[in-house]
Design brief:
12 strands, four-stranded antiparallel sheet, about 180 residues, single chain, eight-stranded antiparallel sheet, mainly beta
Length: about 180
């Protein structure tokens, strides 16, 4: 599987609304690439989490994340989710492109670039945010991801989608032996 990205799964809202979208898979992949587009009406917001083969991890202070907004604001936080995204205004989509280092014997590091429209008018610029973070689990591999609506927020509308690719083969890192 070296130098090859494998489609691990895709979840799409085709009718009505859904409270979460997620993908699970079997196999060991050192690198994950996740693309998602969420659409929520009215009161919106979502939470992004990882899981092992058994369950999504939503335990207290299991993730650390930071972000830098287009206005230069930078912040960080410990949480029960990797990050929470705000939705686009008036059913406008928000997009995320996520890269993950998925090695079993280390914490999982993550980079996310998110953008969302503020309004459909031509005079407004989209919001853009760079996120970074980690999942504190340093023993298991990520084998599922989930984007769920925040408590008290609206579900995801038709057209919302999450797609996950894996690459790099076995997800365990060992240092190479270097000759003297």
């Amino acid at each position: 599987m070296a130098n090859t990205w494998v489609l691990l799964g895709k979840d799409v809202v085709t009718t009505g609304t859904e409270d979460s979208l997620g993908v699970s898979w079997t196999g060991d992949y050192k690198y994950l690439h996740i693309e998602y587009c969420m659409i929520q009406a009215g009161t919106n917001g979502s939470e992004f989490r990882f899981g092992t083969t058994s369950a999504i991890d939503d335990g207290t202070d299991r993730y650390y994340f930071g972000y830098s907004s287009q206005d230069g604001t930078t912040t960080g936080d410990e949480s029960n989710k990797l990050w929470g995204n705000w939705g686009g205004a008036n059913d406008l989509p928000y997009w995320s492109s996520v890269d993950v280092s998925n090695v079993a014997n280390t914490e999982k590091t993550v980079r996310n670039r998110m953008s969302t429209a503020q309004a459909s008018a031509g005079s407004t610029a989209p919001n853009m945010t760079d996120w970074w973070g980690k999942w504190y689990n340093d023993s298991d591999l990520i084998q599922q991801v989930e984007v769920a609506k925040e408590s008290g927020k609206n579900g995801f509308s038709v057209g919302s989608v999450i797609t996950v690719w894996g690459g790099g083969g076995a997800g365990t890192f060992t240092y190479p032996s270097l000759p003297n």
